[in-house]
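seq:
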Amino acid sequence: MTNKPWKLILMLTAIFLAGGVTGAFVMIRVGRKMIAERPMPEQWAPLHLRKLTERLKLQPEQVEQLRPIVRRNVEELGQLRNHYMSETRLVFQRMEREVADKLTPEQRFKFEELNRQMRERAKKFMPNRPNRPDGRPEGERPSPPQAPPPEAGK
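struct:
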């Protein structure tokens, strides 16, 4: 065995790679499930209050005193989340416009296709999310104007 260390190195490398691939597949599956099952913002306050009640063994009168505090602060967190998600969406839209402005018509067409594919992948991670007030599903951005397909012969 000492005269053939490359076999040992190859075997250990294969074991390491197999573990990495297996771990990646497990995390993709678990991650999708965790994202899909995470609570909606309107569920945050009742869930948090329930956790506090169970873990701290709160009395009923304490629960009633804490309910408005938790509700108010969780609502504020939800508003902050919505604001920053909206701002994030605007930054992505601006970036897409700026990038598209620097591309040829053929590249712009491919760029829009890539963006569409990314939005489709995002929908797979959040299949049970309701639509936003503007009617678009969560995670979907409005598409920039499409470039015409490349002309034949160019």
